Structure formats: structure tokens, C-alpha cells
Amino acid sequence: GESVGLHLPTLSVQEGDNSIINCAYSNSASDYFIWYKQESGKGPQFIIDIRSNMDKRQGQRVTVLLNKTVKHLSLQIAATQPGDSAVYFCAELSYNTDKLIFGTGTRLQVFP
Amino acid sequence: GEEVAQTPKHLVRGEGQKAKLYCAPIKGHSYVFWYQQVLKNEFKFLISFQNENVFDETGMPKERFSAKCLPNSPCSLEIQATKLEDSAVYFCASSQGTGDHYTQYFGPGTRLTVL
What we know:
A: 50% strand; B: mainly beta; globular
């Protein structure tokens, strides 16, 4: 049968609505977290990051929330636009290894 | 340059042939990372370099995969005797890597198809 990897969780939103994409990370000792956006045929594009000593960080139209108690990360996109349609990945990193551990991506579909 | 550059964009090899992929990190970045993305979803870390020195190679299938970052040359990832399961997109990323500069910036990837 088909691999689970081909069936990404999908979030469908209407243009102008807010989007929330969630991620459960694996390592309670991770120091740093990043959200990446990947469009079809392209490499991951940095969106926003947050260090483990913070619980919230805001960028332009995006906010990342970190809940270390339950090892949960979320990405909020305000006023979602068609250009936001992509697969979004969270990634975690420990300073002593530097390698990114990626979560399962979420496909965001924005409808007009 | 201001972006990570990867060549070639696409590479097709018959099973058992060699494949070599190249990466030029962002100018001024000391760290280079290679990741393998399969099924358009899962990313697997392969190897990282600090300048020309291997920093972490725990993800590398050592029997067939090798990588180098030599001074004044693009970094390279080489696969000897490719197998069908090596078909994937290979991404290179670079970072300044120290202090507050841990963000890894990714190149556009090389799609390897093994037939």
C-alpha cells in the first residue's frame, strides 16, 4: 500500500482567516525551534524561530508559541493568503548537535 | 553568495552507478548540513561540516555515502553504487552556527532518481 508519508495532515482555510498549525516535538532538551515553509519543488524556507527560554515570538503575520510542558509548538498565520499555501514543518535542534530534527509536515491549503 | 546553491537540480542514475551532488553555502557560513527528503515529507539528517571538518556524520550510510567540504570548492555528497531506495531529494543547508546564529538556510535541493 501507499506510505503514510504521502498522506500529510492538511489544514484548509479560507483566504483572510487565521491559520494555526501544530507540532509535537520529541526532545525535551531541545534548545531551539524553527518553522519552515516548503513550496512544491523548493527547499524549506525559514519563517520564524524561537529559543527554549521563550514561550512566544511574533513576526510579520506569524506567531510561534512554545509550550515546553507538553512539548508542543504552534505556528499562527494571520490573515492567511493564497501565497501561504505550502507544507509547513517544525524542526528542533540541540546546540550540542546542531542537526535539525524535523516533524511531520502539515499541508496548508488556502481557498479564495 | 546570499543563497545556498545546489547542483544539479535533477540527477538520474541507473542502479549501481555513482552520483555526485554539489553545494555552495552562503558566503560567511561556517556550517554545512546535508539532509535527505523522501516521500515529500520525511527529512533525514546525513552529515554536517564545520568548515572542512566533519562535525557530525551519524546519519550517513557509511558503506556507500561520502561527503567533503574542501577550501575554495563546493561541498559534495557522493553516493557510490546507488540503490533504488536512494531516490530522494537531497538538501544542503548552511548556518553561521555559533551563538545566536543557528538558523539553517536551505538550498533548492537535488532530486536524485535511481532507475
